[in-house]
Amino acid sequence: MSIGTFSYPLPVNEPVLNYAPGSKEREQLKVTLATLKAETLDIPMYIGSEQVFTKNKISIHPPHERKYTLGQFSMGDKKHVQQAIDAALAAKEKWAALSWESRAGIFLKAADLIATKYRFHMNGTTMLGQSKNAYQAEIDSACEIIDFLRFNVHFLSEIYKQQPISGPGMHNRLEYRPLEGFVLAVTPFNFTAIGGNLPTSAAMCGNVVVWKPANTQVYSAQMFMRILKEAGLPDGVINLIYVNGPELGEVCFSHRDFAGVHFTGSTGVFNTMWETIGKNIGRYKSYPRIVGETGGKDFVIAHKSADPAVVATALLRGAFEFQGQKCSAASRAYIPSNIAKEVKKKLVEGINSFKMGMVEDFSNFINAVIDERSFDKIKNYIDKAKKDKDASILAGGSCDKKNGYFIQPTVIETTNPQYLTMCEEIFGPVLTLYVYPASAFEKTLDLVNNTSPYALTGAIISTDRAAVELATRKLENAAGNFYINDKPTGAVVGQQPFGGGRASGTNDKAGFILNLYRWLSARTIKETFNPPTDYKYPFLAED
Ligand SMILES: NC(=O)c1ccc[n+]([C@@H]2O[C@H](COP(=O)([O-])OP(=O)(O)OC[C@H]3O[C@@H](n4cnc5c(N)ncnc54)[C@H](O)[C@@H]3O)[C@@H](O)[C@H]2O)c1
Ligand SMILES: N[C@@H](CCC=O)C(=O)O
What we know:
The protein is α/β, with parallel strands linked by helices.
């Protein structure tokens, strides 16, 4: 029981360490990488108070060093999904009854543990398991996850403060209950922070959670889970399991206590989930909350007034950081004819200067893509572009999976604005560029708006204020995150709430106050102090 109203002020974003040569953090991270590589982990699922091992072991290899083994994890099946749901429901009552300050304290402590004791372990497991360079790991598995935890505590405390007014003789209040049942969190491979945020944002609101990360993110996910336990998260509040998607769906989406899904991943998987939930709608106790942030085909459009150096830099960073495996990555560029030659030259120079290789070598800007399936898919798009008449390779184009899944950052130039790689999400280091007549800016904005089903991120690069305004207006629904004179990636918690519409998701803005409302179910309570004792209104009295 609380005996005070406690305050959780707006935090400041966790400072990003730069890992420059000679810095203390660079040295500490290198030591941690070596330590992690020296041990071979046997990773369990975390169900209730149990660490569950199975005979079905999956080995973990760094995507950039296929032959190396970091450890193995125990793959579960439908039985483990059911056990995780049972453990969650068993923990529910106590967790929901725990005071807000105690719940908040657990997540704030986890944030502090990551900022200090475990920063290099979070970054190291992300670098080795997902092939991120030190800087990309730092902004994800340290800073963004810390920010998610601290900002969500602040946002939730702001929600709890929102109360209705009370007329004379009564008091009205609003309780923000957790959902009735359990929440399922299904998370993608590409951001350790998303893996951390999806289960904790729901749990913070008093919910209990079954969390299934992508198999290719288990190495960093288990690190985060261990930190949550050390921070004092009670058993059963978040249950971490590794099972295949359809088996997970079969058990969770037919369960009467299924209360909601917090998903980030591809549009196809989300559509399948939505369809299954729709078919089963009569089975549930309540209407489930369905929250999903999904794919993107993110654009950069330059205006004829743009500085070619600004355009090329936005593309080099926006399209190729973390091998283009960000839902926000620039993957289609519309360049006006007057600056096209200069932009292309700078793009080619930039790509030729990129170093690609292992994450342990800090001079590598580019590392490997996540796995063989992804490598093959991306390579197919590049191979096709090499053959197609309306496409050509402007830069990059080579792929090699002998030692690791390396795809050279590639720019495809097309004369067809509806070319395949202008429309479909590739999720790799491939940018497609289309040169438009500099005089046809407004018409090209329509093209940008209508070319892909997605609406996640996009950018306008221009020094002409009227052009910026026109693009902002005409592309109003083409992106949930719209950038002016910047790359379309790198949203920061608390600064650029993130998410998109159309086929890119429900746009519930992860890491922002809007998202937290989805994990709460309000109850209005009215108390009358002097209840009436006669049903008759005064006007019924005779004159
Ligand atoms: N919009 C965003 O905020 C955002 C952020 C990150 C990634 N993404 C998107 O995620 C995708 C890349 O990540 P990914 O390859 O891990 O995505 P994915 O859709 O393949 O997998 C996401 C999660 O869903 C699980 N899954 C797969 N099939 C399932 C099924 N039938 N039922 C239940 N779960 C299932 C996976 O195991 C994984 O845990 C891209 O499309 C990217 O745009 C979007
Ligand atoms: N929020 C991240 C993208 C997350 C998806 O992969 C960004 O803004 O770049």
